[in-house]
């Protein structure tokens, strides 16, 4: 199985996908006239715009649900793995993916809002919906929905569960099947309560977990503040092959930085649009801007915090590279021993400053980071089941999804880390291919919505969306809202 998954990953994660991801972000950066810089203040203002309703969640709840998906094991174990296999320069390429990806996130989230629908009283949307309505290619939308159900429901949750189980085992010496079973049980208790319960849970937990983790890392950085300038210089030097110790992994820095960057912030992957569509806002561009900001929170804040902590504590050895299990070059951190690439690296770094407490804190952080991400995966998979079964009212398929994901969580927890990550990477890559092609073909409505939003803001108005103003004739939700408002 490892050989098959590895072969598929080599095909999916070829240079073509890396170029496509970076190129698409660069293209949309210019097409939106550097929206990710021009509208930072507006993004922050919009975080608290919009109220929840019987059909949709508030902007902040949608942001929290989106961050639940973005802030996960990729921010702890993923960053550690990227630096282990790609050197410190991988962190720089994660930043690049985040900066460029913020514009991509705007496009996909805005499209999700424009073409959202209402199913069983709840707003639903995402790539499958905008592919069908915007491009008019039914087979493409159905294929994306199927791929997403497999990826979000089966391939991706195992990575999160595996990192939680590894972290808890390192800190408390619990068997992985025990922590996996507990995680599955808590997951079931939440998801059987419905989408509103997921929104309320993530709205409360996500801000606390992200702020708490960043504060602890800031303390560690502050204790070693004299090393920070050198660490920043090291990141840039190794990113551009100017550091002799990392010359052998220059190409790996780009590959792992992009791969883990996309895994972490999800820009272009096609997962976040599902959640963006659930927001109850007056204009699609509002949620597009909020989703752009969430990319910054994920990578420029949380991932950077982990990366700086790993590098500033000096837990790596560039002079003595060793072969990783897959045969590639990797750098083991001093004092980390034979810890596998994953959460153990981060625990070793934090333990060096807070002995004992570090492993405990990372394990708890991982639990909440990964758990909320699995909740987001469930919502994404459920949305695509909803898309495929719009003419059915029976909940049998969503109940089946819940049971399957509970089993996947337990299996992922007891699996070996490398296989779990490879399976997750495959899911991310497959979705990214489909979604990026779709938004490149369907960019016009999103860019027109941005122009409409800017025009109304310039006139001093609180933007209200009328799809006919931008030439969109297949957005029934917005047409209905317009009729009610009149």
- Amount of helix: over 70%
Structural class: mainly alpha
SSE string: HHHHHHHEEHHHHHHHHHEEHHHHHH
Instruction: State the end-to-end CA separation.
Output: 59 Å
Approximate strand percentage: under 5%
How are strands sequenced across the largest beta sheet?
1-2
Radius of gyration: 21 Å
Oligomer designation: single chain
Task: Enumerate the spans where pLDDT stays under 50 for 5 or more consecutive residues.
Answer: 244-248, 317-339
Shape: globular
Number of helices: 22
**Major β-sheet annotation:** 2 strands, antiparallel
Average of the residue pLDDT scores: 81
Strands, total number:
4
Q: Could you characterize the architecture of this molecule?
A:
The protein has helices at residues 2-12, 15-31, 35-38, 40-46, 59-70, 77-86, 89-114, 127-135, 138-155, 157-172, 176-191, 195-223, 228-239, 250-265, 272-276, 284-312, 343-351, 357-388, 396-414, 417-441, 443-458, 476-485, and strands at residues 117-119, 122-124, 322-323, 329-330. It is mainly α and 486 residues long. A hairpin with a 5-residue loop joins strand 3 and strand 4 (329-330). The relative contact order is 0.20.
List descriptors.
486 residues; mainly alpha; two-stranded antiparallel ribbon
